[in-house]
Structure formats: C-alpha cells, structure tokens
Amino acid sequence: MGKLKSRKKPVILIIIALLVVSVAVFAKLVFWNSSYSSPKYKFQAGLLDKMLKAQESGGTAELSKDEVNGVISLYFKQYKTSDLVIKSVEADFKDDKMVFLVPVTYKNFNLFLSSQGDVSFENGKIIYNPEYFKLGKITLPKSYVLKKLQPKLKSGMALEGDSITISTSGLPISIKNINVKDQKLLVTLEKKQLNIEDMLKGKISSSLQNFIKDFSNVKNLDSSTKTNNGSTGTKTKDSSDQSNGSNTGSKSAVSQERQQALNRLSSGLNAASGAVSTGGQKAVISQMASIVNNMKDSSYNPYSEESSVRAAYSKLSPQEKAELKAAVGSNVDSSAVSILSSMIGN
To answer: What spans are recorded as compositionally biased (Low complexity) (predicted)?
Structure first.
C-alpha cells in the first residue's frame, strides 16, 4: 500500500507540472506582442491629388500603407467601454491580403488582436472577407468575433455572411474596384470630373441647389404677393384665400425639406469635427456649423459670415486644409453639401 502511494506522488507532480507549463505557454501565446503600439499616422495631402487625378481619368490610384492608415486616422478615434479600450486600428499588407493590427486593453490587460483577409468591391460596397482573427497567437472562432463585432459597427458598416461591408454611397468618389497587389491598395475609380473642392464650393448636388432656388422663389413670390395686395387692395377674398393657401402650403413643404437638409448637414459637420485633429480645423468647422444652425431662421443671410470662415480657413496649412476637406467630404451627406457654397474661397 505504501509503495502504491509513493508511486502516485510522482505522477501527480508530473500532472501539476504539465498544467503549470500549459498555462504558462497559453498565457505567452495570448499575451504575445501585447506591448505593440501603432505608429501615429496622418492624412497625406498628396493623396487627394492622387485620387482626383485617378477620378478624372477613370484610372487606378495606388495607396501605400501610410496613405491607407492616414485615411483610417480620419475616421477612427480611440474606442472605450467600461472594460475595453481599442487603442488604434492599423492596416498592413501581406502578399495580396489585407492585414489589420489592433492593440487593445481589456480589464487593464494589454492584448494584441489581428486579422487577415481579402478586400474587394461589389454593389457599391467595400467587402472585407476575413480569413482569421487572432488574439496574440491564438486563433479565435470567426463566427464568435463577428457576432461580437456586429453591435459595434458604425453607420454604413454591416455584416453580410462572414464578411464585413462598408457602404460607399456617401463618398465623394465613385469606386469601381478595390484589391491588394504588391503591398499596395489599388482603388479603381469611375471617370468623373467632380472633386472635393467642388463639393465645398457647392458645385454639385443639383437636387438641393434646385430646392434652395425654389425656396428663394417662394419667398420672393410671397413677398411680391403681399406688396401687390397692399398697393391695390382690390383682390377678392376667395382669390386671396386661394393664393395665400397655395403659398402657405408650398412654403411649409419647402421649409420642412430645408430643415431636414440643415439637420443632416449639422450632424455631418459634428462628425467631421471629430475627424480632424487641430484647433484651427475645428474652428473652421465650428464656424460652418454655427452658420448652418443660424440658417434654420429663414431670414438669416449666411453669406454675411463668409469672410470670417474664409479668414480662418486661409490660416490653415496645406496639410490641415487637405485633412479638413477629406473630413467634410467623408462625413457630410452629399445631398446637403451645397449648403456650404462659398463658405471657403480656396
């Protein structure tokens, strides 16, 4: 009996030792590269020129790793919940695949998330089809990660099967195809002569331009009718009632549409303000937002404040101007952009 007990002791010790080693190895795999910190990327002014030239010719723009991460930096800001902090999202390339590196803190533990997959374009959507998700060096079940991601996806993003999609409907460019090749992101654009500068100067969105024109015509018509009625005093009551009723109905409908457009624009400018980094950029967007809010009063003349916006905008560096344009173009609904007409001069 004593011999049997003495034989069991080494076996138990070996099992305990194996468990300790297994836990240590698992912890090492989970916390692999947990100290990783993404470099600070900034939007590059030359990227705008590159995209606009590709757009004008209907060609393909080749984006480097730094340029892709510069675009990401405009949209992504540190994400926090009570337990989780997503510090950054960094893109990289491996062969013809897209790689995402995501350092996080979970309950005060630093961790390193990564994913690799294919990127493509179809039906107006950028599609990311992940091959894997990893925590450190531990591969996580794809279905589990996607399920956790779904409620945290931003507007315009969605899960479709095992893929993450991003709608391009609000972008100032028309994409035909996206793929990765030779360590670069290739973006093929439809031939188009419009650009972000035109958007900021109100040279697009004819539907909203027509609406603003119609709104002005209704105001002028209403004012003219009142003047004529006051000078002649000979209109019949029935005719006056019909005219006033028609004008009131038209003005009400236009005012409602104008209000909705201004609300969309105000929301877009708030988002754009969060996407820029310097005080000067935020000051320009703040002045734009102030003008938009004042435009909710139909008697307000937005052009009286143009000079102050232009003055603030002119003080920005070329880099700041490029970032501001990109932030506004990316966050403001294209159907409301022309309300920004003439706010900046260059």
So the answer is: 223-234
Residues 136, 261, single domain; the answer is: no
* Residue at token pair 């003005």: 251
What's the rounded Cα separation, in Å, for the pair 345 and 212? 21
pTM, entire model: 0.57
Is residue 22, in this structure, part of any structural domain at all?
Answer: no
Low pLDDT (below 70) residues in the chain: 1-9, 45, 170, 172, 193-255, 257-258, 298-304, 306, 333-346
On whether both 61 and 172 belong to a single domain, the answer is: yes
**Are residues 144 and 261 part of one domain?**
no
Could you tell me the end-to-end alpha-carbon distance of the chain, in angstroms, rounded to an integer? Answer: 94
User: How many separate domains does the chain show?
Assistant: 2
**Which residues contact residue 143 at a Cβ distance below 8 angstroms, ignoring those fewer than 6 apart?**
162
What pLDDT score was predicted for residue 248? 41
CA distance 215 to 42: 41
* Residue 56: inside a domain: yes
Q: Containing domain of residue 154, as a range?
A: 45-192
